[in-house]
Write a structure and sequence with these properties.
- The protein has helices at residues 24-32, 47-53, 70-75; strands spanning 15-18, 37-40, 59-62, 81-84.
- It contains three helices and four strands.
- The termini are far apart.
- It is α/β, with parallel strands linked by helices.
- The longest helix has 9 residues, at 24-32.
- The protein has a four-stranded parallel beta sheet, with helices on one face.
């Protein structure tokens, strides 16, 4: 009998926002892992735009241009984590 792995919060209800042109491969990894509510925005957002976008976000993926200020954090009532993506080293 196989058991379905449970999470503390259903994956299909977790909202993920990825900014600054995070790779499509990263987006696909989240979706393939069951996080269907994964959105990608190509560029960095202004503080005002980020406040508007982050209200219902649980996980935020950024790169170096996004500024997560105290005002952004105050608006992010559901935010559980922030991850910073880096470019892969070139060979």
């Amino acid at each position: 009998m196989s058991q379905k792995k449970l999470t503390s919060y259903p994956k299909e209800k977790i909202n993920i926002l990825l900014l600054e042109n995070i790779s499509d491969a990263a987006v696909a990894e989240f979706i393939d892992a069951g996080y269907a509510n994964t959105r990608k925005i190509t560029g960095a957002l202004s503080e005002e735009d980020l406040i508007r976008e982050v209200k219902d976000v649980h996980l935020l993926g950024i790169r170096s241009k996004t500024q997560v200020t105290a005002k952004v954090l105050a608006a992010a009532k559901k935010l559980q984590g922030i991850g910073c993506f880096v470019s892969a080293p070139t060979r």
